[in-house]
TrEMBL record:
InterPro entries: Integrase_cat-core, IstA-like_C, RNaseH-like_sf, RNaseH_sf. Residues 1-171 form the Integrase catalytic domain. Belongs to the transposase IS21/IS408/IS1162 family. It holds the Pfam family Mu-transpos_C_2. This is IS21 family transposase. GO terms for molecular function: nucleic acid binding. Coiled coil: none annotated. One of its GO terms (biological process) is DNA integration. PANTHER family: TRANSPOSASE RV3428C-RELATED (PTHR35004).
Length: 382
């Protein structure tokens, strides 16, 4: 006799290669027909737990009861002889799909024999000696196995039927899916620092540099990590389950590099404007001709280091008067004046950083505090 539809769900783990690395898998088994759903995962987080439920419901249907072990995603606490305290989010999920949660009694392994045997069956009949390329390939093989070999085995409740036939008889008793799926994504508000990265689950994900020092929202599912500013999508990355990884979008990096290049150009232009004001006019005229301002600025800065501010100002004025707003014209004007004075060719002086640091401006401090300390010492001695 077919009883009210019930589904057993639990996580299992399998060692992969190095025994220190383990792969999780989520198994859901219909209590009467023993039809299974298997999904391999890289974690046992709450969003993965709920997403696996949704995927199982899409394949099997929604049962009237879901029986769970006392894992943290479903049960917060379950004292012996008392009712279980369920996770509030899992309760919302159950209300959305219309099923009742049933928690196994503590230290009562006999109550979850169906799912424990299913976990052992997955390890021995499916995973043992199986090869796969990635997690997506492994889950595709698991779907085919559940619909094939696992469905062809005899149904323990009625040995005359296969699991496939028993499931066909049980399926009409399952509930239908709601119109809207339950939102299973993990949502987190993060504060971005000075660097264009958001920190999530021990990894860093790039965002556009224009949104540093702001409050953003991270939405993560088992496969993707999305960063939004209100309704605006800023970044969409594949999720990493490693630690201390930097997951970067090449477009974000290119934009940041271009922004820094422009920032260097503006700093160089400001330096030239203070040393030789005529350089701003030269750069403006060069921009009208479509010249590369970054290259021109770097060339003028090199001339500034070699010849000095006064000589550069005069040479830039000569270049502008001749109608050639280009560093070569400025360099020729500087060389003509040097040869007219019979000076030696200037040499660029490249000082090491510790020598340059000696010329750094230092803000002098008032000496009143030292005078006060000296007076206190004199009073103590007297």
């Amino acid at each position: 006799m077919i009883r009210d539809s019930a589904l057993w769900g639990e996580f299992g783990t399998i060692a992969v290669g190095d025994t220190r690395r383990r792969l999780s898998f989520f198994v859901m088994v219909l209590a009467w027909s023993r039809q299974m759903y298997v999904e391999f995962t890289l974690s046992q987080t709450m969003e993965q737990f709920l997403a696996a439920h949704v995927n199982a419901f899409n394949v099997l249907g929604v049962p009237k009861k879901v029986m769970v072990d006392n894992l943290r995603c479903a049960v917060l606490r379950h004292p012996r002889g008392e009712h279980a305290e369920f996770n509030p989010r899992y309760l919302d999920f159950a209300r959305h799909y219309g099923f009742q949660i049933v928690a196994c009694a503590v230290a009562k392994g006999n109550e979850k024999g169906r799912v424990e045997r299913a976990i052992r069956y997955v390890r021995e009949a499916f995973f043992a000696a199986r090869t796969f390329t990635d997690l997506e390939d492994l889950n595709a093989q698991a779907d085919a196995w559940c619909a094939g070999q696992a469905a062809d085995r005899p149904c323990p409740e009625d040995l005359k039927l296969s699991v496939r036939e028993a499931f066909a008889a049980e399926q009409p008793r399952l509930l239908g899916l709601p119109e809207n799926p339950f939102p299973t994504d993990e949502v987190l508000t993060v504060k971005v620092g000075k660097t264009p990265y958001v920190r999530f689950d021990l990894n860093d994900y790039t965002i556009p540099h224009t949104h540093v020092m702001s409050l953003l929202t991270v939405r993560a599912d088992p496969r993707r990590v999305r960063v939004t500013d209100g309704a605006q999508l800023l970044a969409d990355h594949p999720r990493s389950y490693d630690r201390d990884q930097q997951v970067e979008d090449p477009a974000h990096v290119r934009t940041l590099v271009e922004h820094k290049r422009q920032a260097r150009h503006h700093r160089g232009a400001n330096q030239l404007g203070k040393a030789a004001p005529a350089s701003l006019d030269l750069l403006a005229r060069a921009a009208e001709r479509g010249s590369n301002l970054g290259t021109l600025t770097a060339a003028l800065l090199r001339l500034l280091d070699r010849y000095g501010a006064a000589a550069l100002q005069v040479a830039i004025v000569d270049a502008l008067q001749s109608g050639v707003p280009h560093p070569n014209a400025v360099r020729l004007a500087l060389e003509r004046r040097r040869e007219a004075r019979h000076d030696q060719p200037p040499l660029a002086t490249c000082l090491p950083q510790h020598v340059k640091d000696k010329d750094a401006p230092v803000q002098p401090h008032r000496l009143d505090a030292y005078d006060a300390l000296a007076e206190e010492n004199n009073d103590e001695q007297s």
